[in-house]
Amino acid sequence: MSKRDYYEILGVAKNADAKALKSAFRKKAMECHPDRHPDDPDAEARFKELNEAYGILSDEQKRAAYDRMGHAAFEQGGGMGGGGFQDFGDIFSQIFGGGGASGGFADMFGGGGRGRQTVQRGSDLRYEMEITLEDAFRGKDIDIEVPIAEDCDRCDGLGAEPGASIETCSTCGGAGRVRTQQGFFTMERPCSTCGGQGEYVSDPCHQCDGQGQVRQQTALDVSIPAGVEDGTRIRLSGQGDAAPRRSGGGQRGDLYIFVSVKPHGLFERDGANLFCRTPVPMTTAALGGEVEIPTIDGGRSKLKIPEGSQSGKRMRLRGKGMSVLRSAQRGDMYVELGVETPSKLNKKQRALLEEFAREGGDEISPESKNFFDKAKAFWEDLVD
Fold it and tell me: Which GO terms describe its biological process (predicted)?
């Protein structure tokens, strides 16, 4: 079954701003939360669908990718934020100030809370990569450096100076969250004393400022496949941030490479096909002949110009286009002819063209004759 449109799920227009998105999400979330529909087996699925829609549209980069490519932009799971790389956020913390979908938000409707989160997955990262059209044609292995969060080697990821004690936070009792009552809602927020960790470090690590992690420039080799298109996303599993040790040390996050292809000076691309425009001398267009055309693989192809060719005529070179992703096939190249009018004529050339005109040269130009025949009929109709 195909996915529903995210804007339709939230009930907003495609030009809705962040405030309208947030307002629509809050309203819909309160209406369709599973705790309010205990007898509806589809309630949880609808709520997850709503959460997914807001998760994409509330992020500018992910929203731009969705507007451009639809659901295909996120086929392999997980959206990305902006910048060279970015951590993923918690939607429910942003909107309701609480914990995750299965805890803090449920408590808004009187549901049971959960204990302090013990295992977290490392954050996913995003990296923007720009390549040439030639690289996209051939494929290429590219070395990059990405700032990735790793456990601090001074404190071994604990966030405390060696020998310093780690104590349970007295404000939240180690839960990492505190609750406040607002009307019939119970709101959960990260504990401001311990920053949601549930623990208090008496002497924070001087190297990582008590975070337990530091970002390190990490060299990675990325293989760009032949035929890759602008906007393609490549996922490197397990190459994102390390999971915080103090939160249980779960799986590493993933690294997502977003590929953009630079505009080319000669070729324009449409899928696997290439388009270019070549100038053709007037004499070659009139008499027929050949012109030499560059190809994306660095070679040259001879293009036969039929006698009497006109500007705008499009000709095809089969198999001279882009590589097709995960295939040995290639697209085609389409060449548009642009017939050039001679300029800066010398005396002999001018005399020859004048003689050509006296011999009725203008009368053998089919487009001109057709146009002026129609113009003559137009003027005659005006007179009548």
Answer: DNA replication; protein refolding; response to heat
Tell me if 276 is assigned to a ligand binding site. Answer: no
* β 333-340/273-281 pair status: parallel
> In this structure, are residues 129 and 257 in contact, taking their beta carbons and an 8 Å threshold?
yes
Percent pLDDT > 90 in the chain is 41
Look at 178 and 351; give whichever has higher pLDDT. 351
Domain boundaries, the chain: 263-341, 350-384
pLDDT of the residue at 245: 79
- Measured from the Cβ of residue 236, the count of other Cβ atoms closer than 10 Å reads 17
Q: Rounded to the nearest 10 degrees, how much is the dihedral formed by the CA atoms of 49, 50, 52, 58?
A: 160
Q: Which residue type does 161 have?
A: E
Per-residue pLDDT at 42 exceeds 70:
yes
> E strands of 88-175, at which residues?
125-131, 140-151, 166-168
Please name the residue ranges forming H helices in the chain.
Answer: 6-10, 18-32, 43-57, 60-69, 91-96, 104-107, 133-138, 282-287, 347-358, 366-383
pTM for the whole structure: 0.58
Q: Is 32 annotated as a binding residue?
A: no
Instruction: Supply φ then ψ for residue 207, to 5 degrees.
Output: -80, -40
Whether residue 205 is annotated as binding a ligand: the answer is yes
CATH superfamily of 263-341: Urease metallochaperone UreE, N-terminal domain (2.60.260.20)
Do the Cβ atoms of 164 and 201 come closer than 8 Å?
Answer: yes
Identify which of 36-45, 134-143, 195-204, 236-245 has the greatest average pLDDT: 134-143
Select from 107, 300, 250 the least CA-distant residue to 189. Answer: 107
- Model confidence band, residue 321 (pLDDT cutoffs 50, 70, 90): very high
Q: Which residues pair with 150 in a beta bridge?
A: 214
Amino acid at 158: L
